[in-house]
Model the fold of this input.
Amino acid sequence: MAAKRDYYEVLGVSKDADASAIKSAYKKLAVKFHPDKNPGNKEAEEKFKEAAEAYGVLSDATKKAQYDRFGHAGMQGGMGGGGFGGGQGFTNMEDIFSSFGDIFGQGGGFGGGGRSRGPSGPPRGQDLQIQLTLTLKDIAHGVTKKIQLKRYGKCKTCDGVGGTGKETCATCRGQGQVRRTQNSFFGQVVNVTTCPDCSGTGQQIKNRCKDCHGQGRVTEEVTIPVEIPAGVEEGQYLTLRGEGHRGPNGGGAGDLLVVIHEARDEHFERRGTDLHSKADIPFTTAALGGTIRVPTLEGDVELKVPAGTQSDTLMRLRGKGLPELHGGSHGNLYVKVHIHTPEKLGSRETELLKELQQIWGASSAKTKDGAKDAKDKSKSFFF
Done:
């Protein structure tokens, strides 16, 4: 089976192309390879579908970010179980064309009579997206956070229907859509859009609700608990179905996308499931060996320092990193030691160091074997 082509290559745009350039590139390809212009041409049909698939990802900010980070693998099942990944976008070809005002019409954009559809029903509400900041401790153990937000919710006064009494919409004559025909370079183009007066229902409210003014929705403030599993990473997101804006006139609710942001930690730097930190040690401890206390996400622990440890030696504490998402093993904590040199010395300290300097100076004519021994001592120690 042939490998999938890069989506940017499919549309012929660069990775830094903006939404307008991506949309324009897709429209050109869609017009070129549309089945109505290429009847019976399987190759054109495949290119048409390939372009639509690429646009469906690159036109969605969340999906695009996921694709830029993980490539095609990021589009296969999202981030794994537990609801991470997924995202929202076009659900079918009809949705894609509706985003352009249906430039191809309903079978009539390239000739052909086309046919009128019935009322499409009230539109679905918009998705919401928020950023949730987590500490490394939150990520290590998983956490439940409460999110406060404003959104359009169902009007309780009219139960979301907008009022009482219904009549056929005069604008669309009950069709739920309005059609406009224009002449363009490609010929006659039929634009079909949702009726702005009835929101696609084909009917209008006679007696509008005084609270929602016939919209069937009002602004509300809500608090939503969000369970975050352990092991999440920067940029991953959780999709909460139906927690976005409610649509007008009884339309369904959109989704809430909770995007993960990691707070900067004063002790640790994250690299996947591993953590990295630094620790200063006295040069006496480095030379003679000993133990130091280092912070972990579970509290301070003792770390053994072997005699002869060199500056920038990397030491490992097994299992003291972060867990993998949805279970599995833990990463490690790597501590890079730095030998601290005292800035001020007492007379006795100075005297002892000068004595050591004389001893070391007598044996400073290093042999090749001695140099090799020093190099060996600079290797990392793992525990």
Notes: The radius of gyration is 32 Å. The chain has two domains: 60-112+119-262, 269-382. The longest strand covers residues 143-154. The chain is about 25% helix and 30% strand.
